[in-house]
Automatic annotation (TrEMBL):
Reaction catalyzed: Preferential cleavage: (Ac)2-L-Lys-D-Ala-|-D-Ala. Also transpeptidation of peptidyl-alanyl moieties that are N-acyl substituents of D-alanine; [GlcNAc-(1->4)-Mur2Ac(oyl-L-Ala-gamma-D-Glu-L-Lys-D-Ala-D-Ala)](n)-di-trans,octa-cis-undecaprenyl diphosphate + beta-D-GlcNAc-(1->4)-Mur2Ac(oyl-L-Ala-gamma-D-Glu-L-Lys-D-Ala-D-Ala)-di-trans,octa-cis-undecaprenyl diphosphate = [GlcNAc-(1->4)-Mur2Ac(oyl-L-Ala-gamma-D-Glu-L-Lys-D-Ala-D-Ala)](n+1)-di-trans,octa-cis-undecaprenyl diphosphate + di-trans,octa-cis-undecaprenyl diphosphate + H(+)
One term under GO cellular component: plasma membrane
TM helices/strands, residue ranges: 27-53
Keywords recorded for this protein, A-Z: Carboxypeptidase, Cell membrane, Cell shape, Cell wall biogenesis/degradation, Glycosyltransferase, Hydrolase, Membrane, Multifunctional enzyme, Peptidoglycan synthesis, Protease, Transferase, Transmembrane, Transmembrane helix
Any one GO molecular function term: serine-type D-Ala-D-Ala carboxypeptidase activity
Subcellular localization: Cell membrane
The keyword Protease is annotated on this UniProt entry: yes
Domain Penicillin-binding protein transpeptidase: 364-522
Descriptive protein name: Membrane carboxypeptidase
Gene3D superfamilies given in the database record: Biosynthetic peptidoglycan transglycosylase-like, DD-peptidase/beta-lactamase superfamily
Length: 853
């Protein structure tokens, strides 16, 4: 390579190396400027964000006052807000405000103070009051100071990241302003220990029957364990207390809070736990109160509700509830203070027996408002021969028995049946009823309308219908109405025994039938519930709509109306109430327990009365349920207008024959006006009852040969073969199975006879060449024949004749006068008739019978 070229290349490289440092210095300068601007932007954004958040930060000016004047207890009221039903407090537990190392004051025990810090907040005396940076965005309290902030400012902290930031800022501020000792004192006097116990002194008195001033080391460890998991307290979770206690011991060991001697003592200790007294209440415990409380717990949290300050306005109707309690709680003047409805139908002995049953036997009742879905009154008791009656705060499930038949009726209507569809009540060896089953009236009814089977508890035809509809489909339908505890196995037998239903679920499930197909409930956590709370006022007087109503359409208006009509019209109309109402008595096979349920357009009520002793008669238990239902319904409707149901547009009326449900024919003995979904009316004429021609002399089926003066028409029930046994037992007259043997008489009729076809000749349409039957007669009529006619009809006594060939001029003797086309006739028995009229208007006839196959 030339020297000049080498020099040129080296010069170029030198220039490149010379320019590089300057270029990179420029790039770093730009990057630094950009980073600085971004950092400044972040700082400014954070400053602005912090300033905005600071404006929302709650003031701690009155923080200390929150612990000096605690909230009033949470109270549940009736729907009018007049009567306190339940106050969440133990009136006999007087907890004291204790101090920490105050000379001359009442102080927490030293063991408790020594243990509670390493248990709850090990770094309490050293940190700033809030958790470290790793918890900065965690919205759950970690330190004791953060716990206090959440208790005092819960509604003002917001949620998520905002809550985390606010809580930790405020925890630092209160620690700096009030000091750690004050923070700890407030905390130990207000912390939640479960069972309405706030503060260590209340917890010590409830669980240990002693003051927190004298807690021993093991007792201190127990309270620390409860403080971490209030639900695992010795009353609510007796079985878990020991494990919870030992787990707390292990936690203290890991944190070096115990000596070896203390560890040995703590691991071997046993506790005697004391039961707390009853909560303070004004009325008996009942499910509505419990449901109201549970709804508040679910919305606000149990600790917050029990800490106090809430006024819960339940849906309970106080007057109605008191009447219900009066009827079911024994008192000396029970008959005067709360008389039974329709008592004039009872004799003195029955009246006394019913009162005895209602005040001593297990009883469950639920009363609901149809339009709002609100629970108005309820009671649930249990009893046994050897124990006193106990009032429950939940609804106890019971076997539903025949109280479920409305949903079988609904399923049938969905499948094209009608209220007038005919079913057969037979109770024979092949019936689906249990052995020994009898109808309530101890009769077997034979053919009945669907509505009759449902209302009179004729469970043989109902069980047959259930089987035809497929039980699993029927109970899946019922589940949509809230009846969720029906068995999968033996589903076809649940109308007799098995399954579980509460009066609440039954009363609610009936509401769509009363409310044009709609059920009103409230929704919570993806599930629907009946409404037990009108509204809640919090400690600041703010009104909260806790259970907003939700209307749930479950079925067509027309179907809802049909169910009402089945259980509320005809013989059911005004049977138990002086206003339109649908009712259903439910019975359990082999048991005396009885359901009585029903509804009006305004109120739905379900009653269950159980058996207490074998001496209780089924009749008295049943009457008790009925009269309790009547009394409660009359009370619930006080001041309400008498209203019924409007007939939906898709409902029609039709006169039908009873019990077939078909159009009335000439033989129909009884008719009724029935309701139908439009388009589902019957089009066939009744065939259960028929008018049959018989010979009045021998009561056999008449034929065309029976002398006309002997023929009468008699109405019979057309009994199918499977019901013949029932008909025989119940002496139902059957259609004769023999024909009148009387034939053509001698004398004038003998001058005219049919020679062919021969009597009872058989013609097979399939035979080759068999198309016609020639008709050959013989006559010796002594005068001129004006005309003759060939006719045929179906059966031995044709109701309708088909006239054929007409001719004149017959010669004496035998002759072929025509033929009958076999191929156009359906298979069956036919009567061939020859009629002759003479010039003097004398009339002659001859008959023969043939069979076409």
């Amino acid at each position: 390579m030339k020297t000049s070229k080498i020099i040129g290349i080296r010069y170029h490289r030198q220039n490149l190396h010379g320019k590089s440092p300057g270029r990179f210095r420029g790039l770093w300068k730009v990057t630094a400027i950009a980073f600085s601007l971004c950092f400044i932007g972040v700082v400014v954004s954070l400053s602005i964000g912090f300033a905005v958040l600071s404006q929302k930060l709650p003031s701690i000016e009155n923080f200390a006052a929150s612990f000096e004047s605690p909230n009033n207890p949470t109270v549940i009221y009736d729907r009018e807000g007049i009567h306190p039903l339940l106050s969440l407090q133990y009136p006999d537990i007087q907890a004291e405000h204790l101090s920490i190392d105050e000379p001359g004051g009442k102080n927490f025990s030293s063991d408790f103070i020594r243990i509670v810090i390493p248990s709850r907040d090990p770094d309490f005396w050293n940190h700033s009051g809030s958790a470290g940076w790793k918890y900065f965005l965690n919205p759950d309290p970690v330190t004791i100071a953060e716990d206090l902030v959440e208790d005092v400012f819960d509604d003002q902290l917001g949620t998520g990241i905002q809550k985390a930031i606010f809580m930790r800022i405020l925890a630092r501020e209160i620690t700096e302003i009030y000091g750690r000792k004050a923070i700890l004192t407030w905390y130990l006097n207000s912390a939640y220990f479960g069972q309405l116990s706030f503060g260590a002194d209340a917890a010590a008195k409830i669980y240990l029957n002693k003051s927190a001033t004298s807690l021993t080391l093991p007792e201190s460890v127990l309270l620390c364990a409860i403080l971490k998991a209030p639900a695992l307290n010795p009353i609510d979770s007796k079985g878990a207390v020991k494990d919870s206690y030992l787990s707390e011991v292990e936690t203290l060991i890991r944190r070096n809070a115990l000596t070896d001697e203390e560890i040995e003592i703590l691991r071997s200790i046993n506790f005697i736990i004391f039961e707390p007294p009853e909560k303070k209440y004004e009325v008996q415990d009942n499910p509505i109160i419990q449901k109201s409380l549970s709804a508040a717990y679910e919305k606000f949290g149990q600790e917050k509700v029990e800490r106090g300050g809430f006024s819960i306005f339940s849906t309970l109707d106080y007057k109605l509830q008191k009447v219900l309690e009066c009827l079911t709680i024994a008192n000396q003047d029970q008959d005067k203070q709360c008389p039974l409805a329709d008592s004039t139908s009872l004799n003195e002995s029955q009246y006394q027996e019913i009162q005895k049953v209602l005040s001593g036997n297990p009883v469950s009742v639920t009363v609901m408002d149809v339009k709002t879905g609100q629970l108005l009154a309820a009671i649930d008791t249990d009893s046994s021969i050897s124990s006193n009656r106990t009032f429950h705060n939940v609804f106890t499930p019971h076997e539903p028995g025949s109280s479920l038949t409305p949903w079988i009726a609904l399923a049938a209507l969905n499948m094209g049946y009608s209220a007038s569809s005919m079913l057969w009540d037979l109770i024979d060896p092949g019936s689906p009823v249990p052995p020994g089953y009898q109808n309530p009236d101890r009769k077997i009814h034979g053919p009945v309308r669907l509505r009759t089977a449902m209302t009179q508890d004729l469970l043989d035809p109902v069980a047959e219908l259930l089987s035809a509809l497929r039980p699993e489909k029927v109970w899946n339908l019922a589940e949509k109405f809230g009846l969720n505890e029906l068995p999968v196995g033996n589903a076809d037998q649940v109308i007799f025994s098995g399954g579980a239903v509460t009066t609440e679920s039954l009363a609610a499930a009936l509401i769509p039938f009363a409310n044009e197909g709609n059920l009103t409930q409230t929704q919570s956590n993806q599930t629907t519930k009946n409404i037990s709370v009108l509204f809640v006022n919090d400690k600041n007087g703010k009104r909260i709509d806790l259970q907003p109503a939700l209307s749930i359409p479950l079925l067509d208006k027309g179907l809802a109306y049909l169910i009402y009509h089945i259980f509320g019209e005809e013989e059911q109309a005004f049977a138990y109430l002086d206003r339109p109402a649908a009712t259903k008595i439910g019975r359990i096979y082999g048991e005396k327990n009885t359901w009585m349920a029903g509804f009006t357009p305004q109120i739905s009520t379900a009653v269950w009365v159980g058996e207490k002793q074998e001496t209780d008669s089924a009749e008295i238990v049943s009457l008790s349920a009925i009269h309790l239902w009547q009394t409660i319904m009359e009370t619930a409707h006080t001041g309400k207008p008498v209203i019924g149901w409007e007939i939906p547009e898709n409902i029609s009326h039709q006169i039908v024959c009873v019990p077939s449900g078909l159009l009335p024919g000439d033989a129909c003995p009884e008719t009724a006006s029935e309701v139908f979904l439009s388009g589902n009316e019957p089009s066939q004429t009744d065939n259960l009852f028929v008018n049959v021609p018989i010979n009045r002399d021998n009561q056999l089926l008449a034929t065309s040969l029976t002398p006309p003066q002997n023929v009468i028409r008699k109405t019979f029930m057309n009994i199918p073969a499977f019901a013949k046994n029932w008909a025989e037992i119940n002496k139902v007259e059957l259609i004769p199975n023999e024909y009148d043997p009387v034939g053509q008489t001698d004398g004038e009729d003998a001058v005219l006879s049919i020679l062919s076809p021969q009597p009872y000749a058989i013609f097979r349409k399939a035979d080759a060449g068999t198309t016609k039957a020639d008709i050959i007669i013989e006559h010796h009529i002594p005068e001129e024949i004006l005309f003759y006619q060939i006719a045929h009809g179906n059966g031995f006594f044709p109701e309708r004749w088909i006239e054929g060939f007409v001719g004149n001029g017959l010669q004496t003797g035998s002759q072929n006068i025509g033929s009958l086309d076999i191929q156009v006739l359906d298979p069956g028995l036919y009567d061939i008739r020859i009629s002759v009229i003479t010039k003097s208007q004398r009339f002659y006839q001859a008959h023969t019978f043939i069979t076409i196959q």
